Amino acid sequence: GQQVMQIPQYQHVQEGEDFTTYCNSSTTLSNIQWYKQRPGGHPVFLIQLVKSGEVKKQKRLTFQFGEAKKNSSLHITATQTTDVGTYFCAALNQAGTALIFGKGTTLSVSS
Amino acid sequence: DVKVTQSSRYLVKRTGEKVFLECVQDMDHENMFWYRQDPGLGLRLIYFSYDVKMKEKGDIPEGYSVSREKKERFSLILESASTNQTSMYLCASRGISYNEQFFGPGTRLTVL
């Protein structure tokens, strides 16, 4: 079935360093969504990207959708301990009925 | 404020038992979903429903069934629980006009 590949699986950074997670698909995506799951919590929607080459920012978070709509990235500038958690990308399946999630990138931050 | 609730946060069952996991959403969403989350495997879709009494298989439906008798409620059923079904189960809902999914708090099921 359709897959969304996400790398890296884990990332540890020192507080203040930057962090990036990448999402790739072999097929063209209609859109891509990003979710954050805090330790012990449930995934919470962050953003949706729809247009080719789209870039959106939320404070220290920058989200990009590739020109070919086959890849996406989430970049966090100057990480803080509050950024700890697992970040998932997700895309609609080909039928447009359900979200398929990447395996997630778990970010840990040491102060 | 959208709210998705799940009947239990923690559940311990024995092998062979029939298990019901309940999910309720209060925003009149058409679509509801059941995922399981396991370390290193991310979120995997078990079943989903786009309307009352309608259901569709996800990527890993084996060993599970679902029921949606009312729009706000979506139940996941393990007919005969097995130890490999020990996992975190997450319910989600989504309206027809929005792609954003709202997740419940999850049920951590342990099958002994």
Instruction: Name the average pLDDT of chain A.
Output: 95
> Count the helices of chain B. How many?
0
Strand content of chain B: over 45%
Percent helix of chain A, as a range, is: under 10%
Rounded Rg of chain A: 13 Å
Helix and strand composition category of chain A:
mainly beta
Largest interface: A-B, 22 and 23 residues
How helical, in percent, are the residues of chain B? under 10%
Average pLDDT figure of chain B: 94
Largest sheet of chain B, in brief, is:
7 strands, mixed
String of helices and strands of chain A: EEEEEEEEEEE
Q: Can you tell me the residue ranges of chain B where pLDDT is under 50 for at least 5 consecutive residues?
A: none
Describe this structure in words.
Chain A has 111 residues and is mainly β. Helices cover 0% and strands 52% of the residues of chain A. Chain A has strands at residues 5-7, 10-14, 19-24, 32-37, 44-49, 55-58, 61-65, 71-76, 85-92, 99-101, 105-110. In chain A, 36% of the residues are buried. By secondary structure, chain B is mostly beta strands. In chain B, the strands form 2 sheets. In chain B, strands 2, 4, 5, 6, 9, 10 and 11 form a 7-stranded mixed beta sheet that branches. A 4-stranded antiparallel beta sheet of chain B has the order 1-3-8-7, with no helix packed on it. The model of chain B has no long low-confidence stretch (mean pLDDT 94). The A-B interface holds A 1, 6, 9, 31, 33, 41-45, 48, 88, 90, 92, 97-104 and B 31, 33, 35, 40-45, 48, 50, 56, 58-59, 90, 99-106.
